[in-house]
Amino acid sequence: SNVKGYQFWQHNNKPIELWSTAVIEQKADYLHDNPVLAGFVNEAWHWKYSSAIDYSGGKGLIELDEL
User: Fold this and answer.
1) Residue 27 contacts by C-beta under 8 Å, 6 or more apart in sequence?
2) Burial bucket for residue 28 (CB in 10 Å: 0-12, 13-18, 19+)
3) pTM to 2 decimals?
4) How does DSSP classify residue 54?
5) pLDDT tens, position by position, for the chain (67 residues)?
């Protein structure tokens, strides 16, 4: 969007095609690790808003359908 007051995505983002299971898993791991790397939690599944808990056998805030 060219409307700067309502821009949601960064202009310098680099979208990639999720063309394989390995790439999808790599990107999910990256997302799950962000709160840990930022120092908000010690383990990915401790972050309340992460789906990491679902992948570690727990139950998160929303129900997920695994692919």
Assistant:
1) 16, 18
2) middle
3) 0.69
4) H
5) 456 677 777 777 778 888 899 999 999 999 999 999 999 999 999 999 999 998 888 888 888 776 6
